[in-house]
Design goal:
This protein is an alpha/beta fold and 413 residues long. The chain starts with a strand and ends with a helix. Helix 5 crosses helix 7 and helix 9 packs across helix 11. It has a six-stranded mixed β-sheet, with helices on one face. The longest helix has 23 residues. Bound molecules: manganese (II) ion.
Length: 413
């Protein structure tokens, strides 16, 4: 048996704040959640899944206009033509009490109830899907405790919109325990609410597929659904499928080795090439963050507008109109006056400076290294004589310049 599970589709969720950015591909971004839903339906048909399961937040909230519902209905009708049933539960965003507009869904769609756990059974497929949707947005009870025992001779699946035992950055709705879900005896739990992909358990399989389409730079990376195969032994295995229409990406550029702006822009171009390789055909919305302790800092920071357009230009050169640069953030730092710090590195720099100040220490070190001249080959000694105070002084100079920077890179001061 093959199932496709998705959650947090947030169809017609607005991408906020985009008006602030010139050149934003507004239409592609506005329609991204709809196109992602169409991608999901394409994938379900192509992979000939036995059922599609949606675990809440299918809609972003009350429909702003009926167009949201019409798009959903027409996509579900495509699944009906392919004889694929759909089972869904409501989440906090599309709780029953929130939706004032509604349309009749195609008859392959089964919306599970909100007052108590509900079950959709498909004898011909051998599938039972248990779930309870949200009647109101803030559900604080553990809904999973009321889910029924598995039905024998069927593959049992649970659908639930939940924070499980608490997930950072997510409202604690319908809290439940991993233990509670595992003990229910289902082959697979398809969860919703957490927008990043997470596999909580492999046996039984318990999964957050993450949201279907990222809606901003905080939801960067591949987004999509999971395809779950359940064997005759009841064991479930999964595969993530990327179905996002627009891929959000954060390109972190390390400029610490860059001596000037041109070199930094070359790094940006390489990062854009990597993002394009990962994203396939889809539009990329990228934030470029340039950081590191860099000799190029002053040049980069001196004209940030020019930097922004150089980045946009480099992205256009690499990938034409496939990449939209949402923002360029400059976080580089000038190489610091290292002696100014009162920590270990500052102390080391001051020590090294003191050593360099007098002639005595170089002569002393040269004398200590003198035995080396008896073992080093003549060819080496001709270039580098460790018993020569001047050579030692030069070496100390190199060390006092490079050692604090090398330590700094390791300690992140
Ligand atoms: Mn959500």
């Amino acid at each position: 048996m093959r199932l496709l599970q998705s959650a947090d589709l947030h169809v017609d969720s607005p991408m906020r704040g985009l008006v602030a950015y010139d050149g934003a591909p507004a239409d592609e971004l506005r329609l991204a959640t709809r196109v992602a839903l169409s991608n999901l339906v394409d994938s379900a048909i192509e992979r000939a899944v036995d059922a599609v399961l949606l675990a809440g937040d299918i809609f972003d909230g009350d429909w702003q206009h009926y167009g949201t519902g019409v798009h959903f209905v027409s996509e579900m009708a495509r699944l009906r033509e392919a004889e694929i049933p759909v089972v869904m539960v409501a989440g906090n965003h599309d709780a029953e009490s929130k939706l004032t507009r509604s349309l009749r869904f195609p008859d392959n769609v089964r919306v599970l109830g909100t007052r108590k756990p509900d079950t959709a059974t498909y004898e011909e497929i051998g599938l039972a899907v248990h779930g309870q949707g949200y009647a109101t947005p803030a559900v604080l009870d553990d809904l999973s405790v009321g889910y029924p025992a598995p039905i024998t001779d069927l593959v049992n699946v649970g659908l639930l919109h939940t924070s499980v035992d608490g997930r950072p950055g997510h409202e604690r709705y319908a809290p439940c325990t991993l233990r509670g879900l595992s003990d229910r005896g289902y082959a697979f739990w398809g969860l919703g609410h957490v927008h990043s992909q997470e596999v909580l358990s492999l046996d039984p399989l318990i999964v957050f597929p993450g949201n279907l389409q990222g809606r901003g730079v905080r939801e960067a990376g591949p987004k999509g659904a999971v395809i779950v195969e359940i064997g005759d032994d009841g064991r479930a295995t999964l595969e993530h499928v990327a179905l996002d229409a627009v891929r959000w990406a954060v390109l972190n550029i390390d400029a610490s080795e860059c001596l000037d702006r041109d070199r930094a822009i070359e790094h940006v171009a390489a990062a854009v090439r990597g993002a394009v390789r990962d994203a396939g055909e889809r539009l990329i919305a990228a934030r470029v963050v340039i950081g590191g302790v860099s000799d190029a800092h002053n040049e980069l920071a001196g004209d940030e507008e020019r930097l922004r357009y150089e980045v946009i230009g480099a992205a256009a050169d690499v990938a034409s109109s496939q990449v939209w640069i949402e923002q360029v953030k400059l976080e580089t730092q000038a190489p610091r006056d290292l002696a100014a710090g009162d920590d270990a590195i500052g102390e080391l720099v001051q020590e090294l400076a003191e050593l360099m100040d007098g002639d005595g220490s170089a002569a002393e070190l040269a004398a200590t290294l003198e035995p080396l001249t008896r073992v080093l080959p003549q060819a080496v000694l001709a270039e580098f004589n460790p018993s020569d105070p001047q050579t030692v002084r030069e070496l100390m100079g190199d060390v006092s310049r490079s050692l604090p920077v090398a330590l700094l890179e390791r300690t992140d001061r």
